[in-house]
Design a protein that fits this description.
By secondary structure, the protein is an alpha+beta fold. The chain folds into 2 domains: 201 residues, Alpha-Beta Plaits; 149 residues, START domain (Alpha-D-Glucose-1,6-Bisphosphate, Chain A, domain 4, 2-Layer Sandwich), CATH 3.30.530.20. It is built from 8 helices and 16 strands. Strands 1, 2, 3, 4, 5, 6, 7, 8 and 9 form a 9-stranded mixed beta sheet that branches. Strand 5 and strand 6 form a beta hairpin.
């Protein structure tokens, strides 16, 4: 039920960061991964809010923020733009260093861009359960401005009504302000904009964390399986953590604990029994015909290494190796309590992975 509020309009800042750059993908994995990547980026933009913005709606690849009251000063506005832009590209740069997936969405994520459109006007509100809906001519105006003739992929656009109280022609330190106007169905709108490309110089290099087991490890089991399916399909299937319900022996549930797309540092728990450990994606290598995927338990005592080697265009050899930290007590305990159980589980899992990948490959060919 919609609860009408007073029809009195209130002055408000409307602030819309908008992400672009993804093309239309076909494969289910690409669609899913693009959605998760965008969700992570939108969360980063929301977390970077420093000027008291409220979220009205998440509109696909954009967020409609608003703030009642006086417009921000030029300094406040440009600092907010800078923080969101740097946070956005810092996350993308980190994602690229941690990425293991080779689907179209994951490969092209580094090409995503951000533009910001801001307008100051008057709006009214309606409350629909826990949601606030904004109404008014100025809400329409800020959405129209997302389509414009600015010759840059990344920029901050701000209308004349927002800058009326600012010093004349003030610009941020990182770009010169440019003036323009455009005719829309709501009339001609005068606006200014600044390109954001120079802010990329402020994006820090990501801190690379080492998730591997320190020191020497000792091999405790090994298993190999031939799969009649291409290398790319087998690796994509094995590295897609939620898909492990389809082939991991005894798996009842897969808990994704920090990321929805598998990459270095992703924590997950494949629940087989109450003792199932939290595993961290700790490494991956890629050569012309071989890909490895390494997972280490959160305590850095045991790890599993998956090796996928292309035998032909339609044949892949999968090898699964188990290692423990080179500690005498740990090796004895592992040998007595877990070695046989894990070896049998991974052997059964490898056989199920073979049948599942071959089924997927046959479905693709029909």
């Amino acid at each position: 039920m919609t609860t009408p509020t007073t029809a009195v309009t209130k002055p408000a800042l409307l602030f819309v960061p908008d992400i672009s750059g993804f093309t239309q993908f076909v494969q289910a994995t690409e669609i899913t991964h693009s959605r998760h990547i965008i969700e992570e980026l939108l969360e980063k933009l929301i977390a970077a809010n420093d000027i008291g913005l409220h979220v009205s709606e998440v509109e696909g690849d954009a967020i409609l923020f608003y703030r009642f009251g006086y417009p921000p000063t030029a300094e406040e506005f440009f600092k907010q733009v800078q923080k969101m832009f740097v946070s956005f590209h810092s996350h993308l740069r980190l994602y690229e260093t941690q990425r293991i997936c080779q689907c179209g969405a994951c490969i092209s994520a580094q090409n995503l861009t951000l533009k910001i459109v801001a307008h100051y006007g008057h709006i009214t509100q309606s409350h629909i359960k826990d949601h606030v809906k904004l109404f008014g001519q100025d809400v329409i105006t800020v959405h129209r401005l997302l389509k414009n003739d600015i010759p840059h992929h990344e920029y901050a656009l701000f209308t004349q009504t927002l800058v009326n109280e600012w010093p004349v022609a003030i610009s941020p330190a990182w770009a010169e302000r440019e003036e323009s106007s455009q005719e829309y169905d709501v009339g001609r709108i005068n606006y200014s904009y600044v390109p954001l490309v120079q802010l990329r110089q402020l994006v820090p290099e990501p801190r690379v964390e080492d998730f591997r087991i320190p020191g020497v490890t000792v091999q405790v089991f090994s298993f190999e399986q031939e799969v009649h399916a291409p290398l790319s399909l087998v690796f994509e299937t094995a590295s897609d953590l939620p898909a492990r319900l389809q082939w991991m022996q005894g798996a009842k549930e897969v808990e994704m604990l920090n990321h929805q797309v598998n990459r270095l540092g992703t924590k997950h728990r494949c629940i087989v029994d109450k003792n199932s450990p939290v595993m961290v994606t700790s490494g991956s290598t890629r050569a012309a015909d071989t890909i490895t995927l390494i997972e280490t338990d959160e305590k850095k005592t045991v790890c599993t290494v998956y090796t996928f080697r292309q035998e032909s265009e339609t044949q892949t050899r999968v090898r699964i190796d188990g290692f423990v930290k080179d500690n005498l007590v740990l090796r004895i305990l592992f040998t007595l309590l877990f070695k046989k159980k894990l070896r049998n589980m991974f052997q059964a899992s490898g056989e199920k992975l073979k049948h599942y990948c071959e089924k997927l490959y046959n479905e693709q060919r029909t």
